Amino acid sequence: MRRFGLIGRTLAYSFSGEYFASKFVNEGITDARYDLFEMPDVNSLREWGRSVPELVGLNVTIPFKEDVIKHLDDLSDTARSIGAVNTILINNDQWTGHNTDAFGFKESIKPVFRGHHDRAIILGTGGASKAVQHALHELGVECVFASRKPQHSNEVAYEELDGEGFEYFKLIVNTTPLGTHPNIDQCPPIPFHRITDRHLLVDLVYNPATTLFMREGAKRGASVMNGKDMLRFQAEKAWEIWNNKDSLQSKGT
């Protein structure tokens, strides 16, 4: 029985477990199981991994997408470029980190992406934000990050968003966990009064399906979407990596 799973700190509301359980049933996959592995940190990840028989692949969620890198043997080109890992392929105790978040985000946004969405504000600076920036860069989008504590030249404080120039950024992506169930009354503090019907607001949060961030945008006529489609695309890409023998040598995603 091949073993797969998700590692993270709090996984009670995880998408991945239910998704792969349904996938295995619907596609008649009987030689695999997918489990949720909560852990306080990844300091003993490799030792833990050797204790799980037939472990083939892992997904990685917050807050470990960056911390996990130092425990891996190799990275795909995409994961190295982004600096974050959400998928691990395990082969003969060789652990290789991949990033399918960027692929998932890029594919999910294509149906609603328009030419005037050429500048984006990414809310948050964690591992998911880096994948979003990577995907948007491939689409030719200029990005800045909003952070509670800006540390780099391409980062601004949330308080600065209400200043001159906000109107030029028609794409806003929330990569923070604010608004995730059960804290559904929370959202990033952006100047919603300046949102228009030419804006696209994307929330990587998917539970609830319509977040406060999305509702506030929709009130002003903006197009809105959650992160569910991104998760589907990234999950399928992860499954492809785990099951494609070529990925053992591939340095792509």
Mean pLDDT: 94
Fraction of residues in helix: 25-40%
Sketch the major β-sheet.
6 strands, mixed
CATH architecture of the largest domain: 3-Layer(aba) Sandwich
Helix/strand-derived category reads alpha/beta
Provide the β-strand percentage band. Answer: 15-25%
Which descriptors would you attach to this protein?
Rossmann fold; 6-stranded parallel β-sheet; 2 domains; 253 residues; alpha/beta; 7 helices; 12 strands
Describe this entry's structure for a reader.
This protein is α/β, with parallel strands linked by helices. The protein folds into two domains: 2-100 and 230-248, Rossmann fold (3-Layer(aba) Sandwich), CATH 3.40.50.10860; 103-227, NAD(P)-binding Rossmann-like Domain (Rossmann fold, 3-Layer(aba) Sandwich), CATH 3.40.50. Helix content is 27%, strand content 23%. The protein has helices at residues 15-26, 45-50, 77-82, 101-109, 127-138, 212-219, 228-243; strands spanning 2-8, 32-38, 55-60, 74-75, 87-91, 94-98, 119-123, 142-147, 155-157, 171-174, 200-203, 223-225. The model has no long low-confidence stretch (mean pLDDT 94).
Topology:
Layout: E1 2-8, H1 15-26, E2 32-38, H2 45-50, E3 55-60, E4 74-75, H3 77-82, E5 87-91, E6 94-98, H4 101-109, E7 119-123, H5 127-138, E8 142-147, E9 155-157, E10 171-174, E11 200-203, H6 212-219, E12 223-225, H7 228-243
Parallel strand pairs: 1-2, 1-3, 4-6, 7-8, 7-10, 8-9, 10-11, 11-12
Antiparallel strand pairs: 3-5, 5-6
Short description:
With 253 residues, this protein is of the alpha/beta class. The protein is built from seven helices and twelve strands. Helix 4 (101-109) crosses helix 7 (228-243).
